[in-house]
Amino acid sequence: MPILKVPVVHSYGIVSGKEHENLQWKLWKKYVNNYSTKTKPKNPFQLTEEFIEDFNYSLKTDDKEEFIELARKMLARCKRRSGLRTLGCGKHVDIPVAWTETLMLSLCKGEIQEEALDILLISLDHAPVSPDHIPALFFVAESILYRICYDAVQKPNLLSCEIKLAKLGFLVFLRLLLLHLPGYLEFCEEQKSRLHISVKALAACELAYQLYPNISFAVNFMLKAGETICGAAEFSDPTASDANLEDVQEETVRNTSLNRTGTWAALNSGSKQSQIKPFLWHSLLVWVCVHNSCSEIDEVLKHVLFYKEQLHQKDWLESVLGLMVLGEAAKLNMSCLKVLMDLVRDFMSGSMPLQKQPKSNMIKLSCWQWQVGYMYTNILREICLRGISADLQKTAFLGFCDCAEQFKDGKELRGTSFLDLLHYYPSADDSHDPFWVIRYGVVYNLAILRNELSGDAIREGLRNAVWKSLQKQKVIEKERQVLDAVRIAEVETKSLTNQFLEGRGKVPAAPRGLPSSQYIGWRITTTLYHHFLPPIGPDIPLPRQPVWKPLSVPCREPKISVKDKKSALQSIREKYLQPQVPKHPDFFTRTDMQLRKIIEDQWEKELQIRLELEEKLRQLELKEKQKLEEERFRRIMKWRWAKLRKTTKPYELSFQCEAEEEDLTEASDSIESTSVQEPSHHWEPGL
Questions:
Q1: Other C-beta atoms within 10 Å of 284: how many?
Q2: How confident is the model over 264-279, as pLDDT tens digits?
Q3: Residue 215 is assigned to a structural domain of this protein
Q4: 232 contacts 196 by C-beta, under 8 angstroms
C-alpha cells in the first residue's frame, strides 16, 4: 500500500495537538472522496441494468435510434459468442456468457426483445450439452419462470412472447434433465431449492394455458422435469424394481440373436440401463444400429415394441425422450418409421377407453398421457422436413397407404400419419372429444410445416398437399380449440423476417417465423448415447515396438551416373504417385477395399461375357461372308461357261487352259452327244 502524504496548511497559525489531528482527519476524508469520484470511463458496450432501463426509457425520446443501434451491436456480439453458424463450437464461443447477455437483452422492448429471444432459441436448440453450462441454465430457467408467472400470465390475451418463452422453458428444462440423468446436478442443492420455488409458482399458472396444448405441453414438461430435478419425484418406473430390470435385461440377452454375433456384448458392456427405462434404452440401441448399419436392427425393433406399454405410465418424461430418439432414427430408416407409427397407433388405441370416460370438464386431460401423442406430432413434422429421402417424408404425411378410401371412415385408427390423425374422430359425441388435443397438434404442426416449405421448389407438391388438408380441416372441424391452432400458427408464421439473423452466411435455423427445433433431437440422442452406451469405434491396432536391427558396416558408396540418377528419381516419383494403402486400415477402409474388389470381379465377369458374345458374332459374320463369296463365285463360273465355254477359273494360267481345251476337244469327238460332260476333276456347271 502506498504511503500518502497529505499536505497540511495551517490557516489559523499554531493549533493544539487535538485540533491538528481533527484537521488531518478532515483532509484525509476529503482526499479519499475526491479519489473515489475519479472513476474510469465506462465501456459503452457494457450490458447493465442501467442500460436496459435507459433503453426502455429512450423509446419515448429522440435518442431511440442511438440506443437501438447500440443494442444491435450487443446482439451481434451475443450472436458471435453463441456460435450460431458453427453449432456452438469454436474458440470464439462462450455460451454461458452469451445466454446471460441475450436473456438480459430480451428485457428490452420492441424488436430487440424478439431478436434476443430468437437468438436464445436457436442457441438452445443446437448448442452442445455440457456440464459447464449448468449455472447459466439454472439462471435462464429461473428467469423464464419468473417472466411467465409474473408477467406473461397477467396479460389478458395470448402474446407471441409467451409462446417463445414456453419454447425456451422446454429447451432449458430438457437440457437440465439430460444433465440430471448422468448425475451432474448432485451438488447443485442451492440452485435446486430456488428452482423448486419457481416451479411451484408455475403450477398455479397451468390452468391458464389448458386451451393451448402447444404451450400447455411445454408448461407440463417444465413442471414434470422440475419435480424430477429437484428430487420431488423419482425418475424411474414405480412398478418395477432394480431386480426386475436386471431380470428383463438378462432375458433380453438370452432371447436376442445379437448375443451370437457379439454386437450385443459390445453395446451392453459397461452400460447403465438400470438408470433409465428399457424403452428408452432400446430406442438408443435402435439409433446405434441405424448409424452403424447393424444387421440386427429388426431384432432390436421387436424389443422396442415389446416395451410399448411403458408409454402409458404416469412418468412420461422418458417416453417422450424415447420417441425423440426413435424420431431421429426414423429420419434415416423406413423400418424405424414403421415401428414408430405402430407404437403410437397402439398407444392411441389403448388410450381410447380412458378418453371416453365421462368427465365433468372437457378441458381437463389428465385421464391419459396426451403429452406423448402431442410430442409425436412434432416428430412427424421433423420427419416431413428433414427425412433423408422423399419416401420417408411422404410416408410421414400420407402413411403407408396413399389411397383416399382409408380416410372416409374415421371410426378406426388405421395409421398415425398426419392425414390419419386428421380424419380420426373416436367419439361421435361432440360434447366430449378429448382427442381434439392431438388434432390441435396436427393442425398446428401442419401450419408450421407449410411455412417451412415455402420457397422450396423441389417439395412444392408436399406443400400444396399440406395446404389442401388444412383448408378441408377448416371446413369440417367442429372444435373451436383446433381452429384456434390454425390462427395461432398463422400469426407465428406471419411474423417479420429477422434480417439480423439472416446476416452473412446461412443460419442453422428456420429463416422465417419462429425458429424450429432442428438439432435438439440429435443432441439428446448423442448425449444419452455417449453416457448410457459405450462407443463403437473402428478396429485400431495397438502400437508395436520397432524391431531391432543390427548396425550395418559403413561402406563407400559407388559413383552413380547421371542416367541412373534420373531413372532412380523417376522410380521414386512413380512410387509416391501411386495410391498408398495403410498397413492396418480401419473399418471403413477395409469396407471400401472389399467393395472395390467385388466391383472389379463383377466387371471382369461382365467383360468376359461381352468378349464371348463378340466372338460368336464375329464367327457368324465370317460364315455369312464366306457363303456370299461362294455364291458369287458360282455365278461367275456359270456365266463363264455360258459365254466362253470354259470351265477354268478366271485367274488360272494360259497353258493350263490350253491343255484343258485339248482334253475337252478329244472328249467331245469321242462322245456322240450334244451335251458336254466335264471331267470328274473339273467343276460341274449344273451344280
A1: 24
A2: 333 443 444 447 888 8
A3: no
A4: yes
| Res 210 pLDDT > 90 | no
* Cβ-based neighbours of 401, under 8 Å, separated by 6 or more: 414, 415
Instruction: State the Cα–Cα distance between residues 632 and 619, nearest whole angstrom.
Output: 20
- Other residues' Cβ atoms within 10 Å of the Cβ of residue 275: 17
How confident is residue 539, by pLDDT bands cut at 50, 70 and 90?
A: very low
- Number of folded domains in the chain? 3
Phi, psi of 358 (to 5 degrees): -65, 135
C-alpha 319: how far from chain center: 20
Q: At what angle do helices 520-532 and 111-126 cross, to 10 degrees?
A: 30
Question: Measured in whole angstroms, how far is the alpha carbon of residue 13 from the centre of its chain?
Answer: 87
* Burial (CB count <10 Å: 0-12, 13-18, 19+), residue 391: exposed
The predicted-structure confidence for 104-162, as pLDDT tens digits, reads as follows 999 888 888 888 998 999 999 889 999 999 999 999 999 999 988 887 777 777 887 88
- Contact (CB, 8 A) for 487 and 163: no
Q: Answer whether residue 276 is part of any domain.
A: yes
Residue that finishes a domain, picked among 486, 508, 543: 486
Residues contacting residue 50 through CB under 8 Å, at least 6 positions apart: none
Residues in the chain: 687
In-domain check, residue 676: no
Is residue 638 a part of any domain in this protein? yes
Contacts of 137 (CB under 8 A, 6+ apart): 99, 172, 175, 176, 179
Spatial distance between the Cα atoms of 224 and 228, rounded to a whole number of angstroms: 6
Single out the residue in 430, 460, 486 at which a domain terminates: 486
Separation CA 530–CA 536 (nearest Å): 10
> Which of these, 257, 363, 377, 399, lies nearest to 327 by C-alpha position?
377
User: Which of the pair, 223 or 407, is modelled with greater confidence?
Assistant: 223
Q: What is the pLDDT of residue 350?
A: 76
Domain of 413 in residue numbering reads as 259-448+480-486
Residue 434: pLDDT band (50, 70, 90) is: confident
Residue owning grid cell 461362294: 630
